[in-house]
Design goal:
single chain; D-Maltodextrin-Binding Protein, domain 2; 2 domains; 6-stranded mixed β-sheet; rod-shaped
Length: 202
Amino acid sequence: MGYKKFLKEQRKYMETKKEALLAKEERKKNPRPPRLDPPPQSGSMFITVALIFTIVIFLLPLMALFHVRSRPVEVISDEPMVYIFATQQEYSEIKGWLEPELLANNLKWNIERGNLGQSFPNTGTDLLLIDAELAEQFYTRQVLAPIFDKRISTDFEDFFFPLWDAEPFKKNLGWVIPYSGRVDEARHLITVIRQFAEPFNL
């Protein structure tokens, strides 16, 4: 290596060293803020899940309260309810016959048409006018009260009061009383129909 080249390399080395010393002094005068590492991912995930869980816990009671308030209030009528399980035409004829009897005897009953596909009416039903076959199904399921107040009632006839005498090839409609209904009022209405009402036949 030549002397000139050696001096050139020495000068370059001295300049680099001088720059490094100046940079070191500058860092001492103006230190950089300490570098913070990001928090570990697992902790962040835990905090997120905990936050969501807390929000859900607080929102659930509010949602339940809103659901309860927004639901329509079921109004239970003070008047007893009779359901007539029949076609629309049969229902109209029976209702037209029954309403004057109720008025004549000062009895207040709501009359509704039941759905023929319904397995059993809603609670709040006190008297049913249904076909004998459907009445037998209800009788088998033991959901009916005896028509008349008897101590021991085991026969189907004690639970079904026909609207007319049974005839072959003709629908046999009759009264039945659900155990869950107002049994005494239903028995009273059947007694009134039995003693005072005009005979009815489709």
